[in-house]
## 1
Amino acid sequence: MTYRAHSARYDAMQYRNSGKSGLKLPVISLGLWQNFGGTRDYPTAFEMLSYAFDAGITHFDLANNYGPPPGAAEELFGDVMARDFRPYRDEMIISSKAGWDMWPGPYGNFGSRKYVLASADQSLKRMGLEYFDIFYSHRFDPGTPLEETMGALAHLQRQGKALYVGISNYPAQQTREAHRILGEMGVPLLIHQPSYSILNRWIEDDHTIDACGELGIGIMAFSPLAQGILSGKYSKGSEGTRAEEKNSSLRRSELAPSILAAVDKLEEIAKARGQTPVQLALAWVLRRPEVTSALIGIRTLDQLKDNLGALSNLTLSPEEIAAIDTATKDALLDHRPKV
């Protein structure tokens, strides 16, 4: 059966301009980081992706190394585009990135011009696209002049392979430099994608969020649930979740008793608001006007529905924000990128 998008798909979603640009993004965007790799079959992938689009999520975020294995998420999304989403391409914001390990040898990661341009071409081919709406430098490369990396992004925009360009995991100083360099090339820096959550506030501590606000750069906050910690699935009383501590991207220290105790307190705050912990976590990230969108990751359709439930109440009172700060004062993580 041919997919037809829901006629009311834009009724409930909220949209924000990315920084000072004219591009509006949904306040909840969908990332295909860990759960849309080679083990995900087409029917379940399409079920979640089409439900997201029908709910007004127009932004789908990928990277060259998303899987597993690397490249698998782009290939799967490319299949969905070819079979079902193609008529709606102009309603979608599709992004990808280059920066982490992708192929062997000295040209398969970081930020050289050779790697960034080759990776973008490979990603476009995997996804069957003519262009990306946003293409990111996935991490700052201390071994490559920033002028070279930003020059590669500018080249992609001038070629028409990226409508906008962005950065991810860049600290404040490098964010300012990237903005300056791109500006001198006549290319705006549209967006910054850092990790940000109730438990992980490094962009506040090093003033990256302030730099973005000052310079007119939108923020796409990834891991707003601290890789599932803020969902409550690791807290006391949760069943069948401890095995997930083996997740290579989640450190055992991040499940310390002080952190789990903080999550329990946050759950009480959420309950008083009539929300789930997931919905509270998203409302907290989106409380800052500098944040354009919260980038979610999902394994199931029920998780997607839980995330979308945040839209019914994104307003936090000063008292609630203070209570959140008190609950987490001894449980904050530091995920600032190394440079």
## 2
Amino acid sequence: MTDQSHPLETLQDIKQMMERSSRFISLSGLSGVAAGACALVGAWFANDIISHSSRLVNFKDEIREDGKISILGYMGHPLMQIAIITFIAAFVLAFTFTYLRSRQHGIPIWGTTSRRLLISVSIPLIAGGFYLLKLMTERAYGLIAPGCLIFYGLALISGAKYTLSEVRYLGYCQLVIGLVSLNFIGYGLYFWALGFGVLHIVYGIVMWWRHERKPTD
């Protein structure tokens, strides 16, 4: 019986080694929870500003002669500042938890697979970034939140082949929420909070439960 099980154990070890070399498996579920929490806090502050403002955005001093707004005109607005702070906080926390998980398992956080993952995710995000900047200059504010969700979902789907399968499903959900929100212009902040906030927290809990939770005896 022992002789028969030994080849199976060897094959299992080889399979695990191949998965480690072909996929970035250091993603932490706590990263998703932290990023989602940051998104919800940011959405709460943004909603507070919007609800106490007579206009969603007031850039009349930055409107050019052609009726458009320069990108620099946005940078001093509280909503843009909240978005930047939220992104930085989410990125730092997500990177920290992922780094700690990679050290715990002795897996380098930067290598061939992580570079491929970064490139695969970056292409849709960069394209989406240029598209969203154009929406801002054209003052098409109602399409910004759906655009964020759609391009982010595409980025996750694109990069999922280099990491855990849960990332692909998160991407599908983000994409669907973004497409649905196109039919509810004016409620983009709520869909934004649902996608970047609630879904990230659910994803993080699932990731932690499936890959990081210590089994009980």
